[in-house]
Amino acid sequence: MDFAGRSVVITGGATGIGFALAKRLGAAGARVIISEPRADKLAEAVAALDASGVEALSFTGDVTDPASVEALAGFAWDAHGRADAVIANAGVGGPRTSVIDSDPDAVRALFEVNFWGVWNCIRSFGRRFRADGLPSAIYATASENALFNAVRTGGGAYVASKHAVLGLMDMLRGEAPASIEVGVIIPGWVKSDMTRHAEPAMDADAFAARIVPQMEAGGVLPRQPSL
Description:
Blueprint: E1 7-11, H1 16-27, E2 31-36, H2 39-51, E3 56-60, H3 66-80, E4 85-88, H4 104-114, H5 116-132, E5 136-141, H6 156-175, E6 180-185, H7 204-217
Parallel strand pairs: 1-2, 1-4, 2-3, 4-5, 5-6
């Protein structure tokens, strides 16, 4: 997709990979709308984007709430006439315990963000994209853990959620009309709030610089090379 002049919605867009994508897509001419639950983080991110010349708006929302995601879509249509692309990027790390010992409530809370948050974006934006038939794109951020278990112990909930996202998006790719491009963003170890205490990790801006040209070219996005 050529992002110049396009409206792009990014969940989890105030920090980490989402914010790096907002900067890179904005530099390519996109009008970005970033969303997450923390209004203070959104305000900081929009100020930084504005300072760099990126046209940015924010929406305080929760991807685990279907009504909130539908309101986000409505906000994009009201602000820009429609959204051209959505990046379901919001994600959390969750419990670092064994599969046997994991708290079921904590696992369900992780899936609400990492999996159902993606599904909610697909439903709200996908239905609108399908209805108007215009060129559109749906992207979701998975993980290298969607392809193999890079986290060998203590990450069962996270790994399972990212496998689920990849399967969901692969199914969507076969079902979506030709007007909707479907892509999966598969980061390795990239710096973010989730990974800030771990080194080494790829700089999020460097990661976005690799990924956005692939989004512009279209197709399913390959995993970044290992560091």
